[in-house]
Structure formats: C-alpha cells, structure tokens
C-alpha cells in the first residue's frame, strides 16, 4: 500500500532508517507491509538494490517473489530474509508500466530468482531483462495468455503440439560418430521421479552434463482458487492438497498463520498445543515416507525398508485419523484454532500416542541398521549429490535439504509460532552436504518430533477441563483492510512453506501466493547432479523429497 500525498508517515524503526540510508536514491516510495518494511524501486535498479541488501545488509535469503497485475500497473515483490534471523525481513516492490511490464531480473544476485521470475512471467505476464532463460515453467511454451492476468480468456482453446518435448540436442551432435552426447527423457511417468516430473537429461558418455526439471504436470492454479474463496470458510481445505502425501496440517498452518496475523486473531494456548502435536505427527509421517522411498530409489528394497517405513507411517496416520477424522485431507485447522477437541476417551488417545512415541527409538535403530549402516547405500550416497551451503542459500533451499548442508535454519525455532518456543527440542544439522546427510537429518528429526509430541501430550493431559478453548472468537465474515499485505512462513516437512496475502477490503484475498519449499529445493537438482552418473542423479532427486503437488500448486 503506497503512501498517498497527505497521509501520515508510519513510525520508522532504526533498522528501517539504516536501510533507507543504504539504498539512498534507489528508493522512490515506501509501502506499508505488516511484517516487513517495504521499499519501492524503479524496475531498472533491481540488481543494484538487491545486491546492496544482500552484500551490505545481510539479507541473504530470497524467500519468495510475488507478482500481480493491477488496473494501472504490474508489480513484483521480492521478499527477503536473513538465514541467521528470519524475523529480520524486508520487501522490495518493483512496479512496472501496464503497457510494457518489463523489469530487471534478480537472477544475477539470487540464483533462486530464476524459477520464481519464470513463474511470474508464465502466470502474470511480467518480463525480466537479463534473465538467463525467460520462458514458461508451469505451462507449455505454446500456451496463449497468462492465467493470472486481468484479461485472460479462460474459454480460449489451447493446443500443445508434440514438438514441445523434442530432443534439444543439435542434429550434428546426435549423428556424429565421435560424439558420446545423448539426450534421455526420464519421466514424467516414472516411479523414480516421485510423481509427474519430467527430467530432460543430457549425458556425455555415462555422466550427466545437464539436467532440466520440466514441471507443471500437476499445476491447478491453487493460488487463483484461493483468490476466489473466502478467508473464513473456503480456503482452508485447499492447503491439504499442496503437499498431499502427509503434510496436511503443516500446510494448513501456513495459511492459518498468515490469515490470523492479517486479521489479528489470537489463538488459544490449548489449541496451539494441539496444533503443534498434530504438525509433528505429520512431520514424522512425511519423513517416514521420504526414508522409505529414498531406500527404494537407491537399491530397490521394497520388501523390508519401504514396508517398514510405511508400517510406522501408518501408525502416525492412524493417530491423525483419530484426531481429525481423515487420513490425508485433514481440514482440521480453523482460523483461530482447531475444529474440535481431542477424541474421547482422552486417556485412550494419549495412551495410543505414547505407545507410538515409545516404539520409535527401537524402530529408528532398525532403520539405521538397515539403511545408514548398509554398505550399498553408503557407496551410493556418501559424497554424491554435493550441495555446498552457499549454493543452497543462493537457491533458497530450506528444510532438511539446507540442514543437510550444515545450514542451521529452522522456522520453528528462529521465527517461533505455535507452542515450539515453550518446548525442549533441537534443530538437526549435518555437515556432509551430500545425499547421505539429507537422509540422516530426516531420521534424526523424527526423534526430535517425538520429543515435541511427548511434551505436548504431558501438557494436554494436565490441562484444566474448563480452560480447553479450541477456538478464538472469530467473526463469521473476515474483511481485512484494503491493501493490507502480509507474508508468513512455517517449517513444513520439506522446508519453509509460506503464504503471502494482499487484502482488498472484501471477504476474499486480492492476491494469494504460495511459497513452496519443494519448488525452490528442486532448483538445486542440476547443481547436485552435474558430473554424476544417472543413478546418483536419481539418489539426489530422492534426497530432495519433493511432492509435485506442492511444486506445481
């Protein structure tokens, strides 16, 4: 919301004053975002502005790029944080002319801007100068129009010719007798691609020299669905479908946190504990599936390891079903709390949870014997899929992918929400930067989640019956103020999951943007795979633990 002539200037913190001094005449206006100071700049100064903020002010994490078309302009917003302190945030707003929506690319400063800006071009229609590869990313190149543009014709028929997926290698490279270069399509329908993912892979002999993930096969424009839904009742069922495998409550929390802060809703302490317990059960279920499928990718062990992992995942799913009534699409959170209290009889539910948590140490010892102690898996994962920490940061990698590269970053601790800051638990990191380290992080995080769940059960057991408030008093219809903007994140099973909302004074958001950790993490695959063999590339992909529903949205 830009300040209009005659309006009072909001109180400026000393840090904001320092940033204004740092950016100087690059700033042409100020915006008023709820969680971050926002600076409006010209579209030809993006790289200089972001470069100063990154190199001189320490904003080394480009978390999200939001794009939107207004009646009189287009706008890109770069949401910046610090890996050392994600509560220290700043937004850079770049308006462009509605007739010529061209802005300078941020890719030379933050490598992760590559895919984020391609998505902004694909769905909204903003073009980015100096972008290394500005083309569609979720829709086919032959698609007509930009689906989130104001004048998009939804009834226009679209044709996608077969040449869309032609071999990109030149004729002479394919035919030359002295060339070992080969193009290989892996997926989109292939068990090793963890969903409908197409890997366009170029080999030199047996080594990968280039791999390009081709995404979008599951794109449903979840953001536009949310923009056509009401805050209070209609949006909440959708987050379950982003990471549809087992992270439903984690996804719901991302929307709940953003909307509750936007509408100034205070969640009761009792409901926060229930949310925290349910979220960690989801994290265990997600990590169990990640461990099982990773072993399946590495050496095809379906009978033992995969089924063992599914066995323990099912135990978590059973508890979540008792709590929410569903096994995958939970729809359990509500703005202001949760939909209902713990199942009765409470003693049986607590006993079931404690039994599950108490069995986990022995189960994890089995996994270490079968997996981390397995010589074949070690040969395939130790020192393969290397992702140095600075490269991971530049791509905006988060979650176990970042922590497997030694980056000590976890939203639950660093930007606390729920009941996490009241509990005793540790952030898990590994310094190996390889496929093996990312596996170890997930297995050790299961132990930390179990500690959190056990403490939540202790608290819930002793909670006075008359103080079991599961929901705040939330108005039936929410209408946040016009042009109120917020960006909030939570620690999902895959990493930093965020939601940006801009209100327009109605009961539906004017802009709803999803920050998918899988989207940013998948960008790192070429960095991890180039120079490796195809089996090592498959291991690297498995170590990312992506879900295409969340990548594509």
UniProtKB/TrEMBL annotation:
Identify the residues that the record assigns to the NADH:ubiquinone oxidoreductase 30kDa subunit domain, covering every copy: 40-156
Q: Which GO terms describe its molecular function?
A: NADH dehydrogenase (quinone) (non-electrogenic) activity
Under Pfam families, the record lists: Complex1_30kDa, Complex1_49kDa
Can you say where in the cell this protein is located? Cell membrane
Catalytic activity reported: a quinone + NADH + 5 H(+)(in) = a quinol + NAD(+) + 4 H(+)(out)
Domain NADH-quinone oxidoreductase subunit D: residue ranges = 303-553
Q: What is its EC number?
A: 1.6.5.9
Keyword Oxidoreductase listed? The answer is: yes
Q: Which UniProt keywords apply?
A: Cell membrane, Membrane, Multifunctional enzyme, NAD, Oxidoreductase, Transport
Q: How does it sit in the membrane?
A: Peripheral membrane protein
Among InterPro entries, the record links this protein to: NADH_Q_OxRdtase_suD, NADH_quin_OxRdtase_su_C/D-like, NADH_UbQ_OxRdtase_30kDa_su, NADH_UbQ_OxRdtase_CS, NDH1_su_D/H, NiFe-Hase_large
One GO term of the cellular component aspect?
Answer: plasma membrane
Q: Which domain of life is it from?
A: Archaea
State how it assembles.
NDH-1 is composed of 13 different subunits. Subunits NuoB, CD, E, F, and G constitute the peripheral sector of the complex.
Similarity-based family: In the C-terminal section; belongs to the complex I 49 kDa subunit family.
What name is this protein filed under?
Answer: NADH-quinone oxidoreductase subunit C
Write down the species: Halolamina salina
């Amino acid at each position: 919301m830009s300040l209009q002539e005659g309006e009072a200037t909001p109180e400026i913190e000393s840090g904001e004053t320092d940033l204004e001094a740092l950016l100087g005449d690059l700033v042409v206006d100020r915006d008023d975002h709820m969680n971050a100071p926002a600076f409006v700049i010209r579209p030809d100064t993006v790289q200089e502005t972001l470069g100063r903020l990154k190199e001189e002010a320490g904003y080394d994490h480009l978390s999200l790029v939001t794009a939107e078309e207004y009646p009189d302009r287009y706008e890109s917003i770069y949401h910046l944080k610090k890996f050392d302190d994600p509560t220290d945030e700043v937004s850079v707003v770049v308006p462009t002319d509605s007739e010529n929506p061209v802005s300078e690319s941020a890719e030379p400063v933050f490598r992760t801007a590559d895919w984020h800006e391609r998505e902004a071009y694909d769905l909204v229609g903003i073009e980015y100068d100096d972008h290394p590869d500005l083309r569609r990313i979720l829709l086919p190149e032959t698609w007509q129009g930009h689906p989130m543009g104001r004048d998009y014709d939804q009834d226009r028929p679209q044709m996608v010719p077969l040449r869309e997926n032609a071999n990109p290698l030149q004729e002479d490279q394919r035919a030359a007798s002295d060339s070992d270069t080969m193009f290989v399509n892996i997926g989109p329908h292939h068990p090793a691609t963890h969903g409908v993912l197409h890997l366009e892979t170029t080999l030199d002999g047996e080594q990968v020299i280039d791999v390009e993930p081709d995404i979008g096969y599951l794109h449903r424009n979840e953001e536009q669905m949310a923009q056509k839904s009401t805050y209070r009742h209609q949006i909440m069922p959708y987050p379950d479908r982003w990471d549809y495998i087992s992270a439903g409550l984690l996804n719901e929390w991302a929307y709940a946190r953003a909307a509750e802060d936007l509408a100034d809703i205070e969640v009761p302490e009792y409901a926060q504990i229930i949310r925290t317990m349910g979220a960690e059960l989801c994290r265990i279920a997600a990590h169990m599936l990640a461990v099982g499928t990773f072993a399946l990718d590495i050496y095809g062990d379906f009978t033992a390891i995969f089924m063992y992992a599914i066995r323990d995942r099912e135990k978590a799913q059973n508890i979540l079903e008792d709590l929410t009534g569903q096994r995958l699409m939970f729809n359990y959170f509500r703005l202001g709390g949760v939909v209902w209290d713990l199942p009765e009889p409470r003693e049986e539910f607590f006993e079931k949870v404690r039994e599950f948590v108490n069995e986990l140490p022995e189960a994890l010892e089995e996994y270490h014997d079968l997996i981390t102690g397995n010589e074949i898996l070690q040969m395939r994962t130790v020192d393969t899929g290397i992702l140095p920490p600075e490269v991971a940061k530049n791509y905006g990698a988060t979650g176990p992918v970042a922590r497997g590269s030694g980056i000590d970053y976890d939203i639950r601790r660093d930007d606390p929400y729920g009941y996490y800051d009241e509990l005793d638990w540790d952030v898990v990191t590994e310094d190996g930067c390889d496929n093996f380290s990312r596996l170890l992080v997930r297995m050790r995080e299961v132990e930390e989640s179990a500690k959190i769940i056990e403490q939540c059960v202790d608290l819930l057991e002793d909670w006075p019956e008359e103080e079991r408030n599961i929901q705040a008093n939330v108005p039936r219809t929410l209408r946040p103020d016009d042009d109120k903007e917020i960006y909030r994140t939570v620690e999902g099973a895959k990493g930093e999951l965020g939601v940006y909302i801009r209100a327009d004074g109605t009961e539906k958001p004017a802009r709803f943007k999803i920050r998918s950790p899988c989207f940013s993490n998948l960008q790192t695959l070429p960095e991890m795979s180039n120079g490796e063999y195809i089996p090592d590339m498959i291991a690297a992909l498995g170590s990312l633990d992506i879900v295409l529903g969340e990548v594509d949205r």
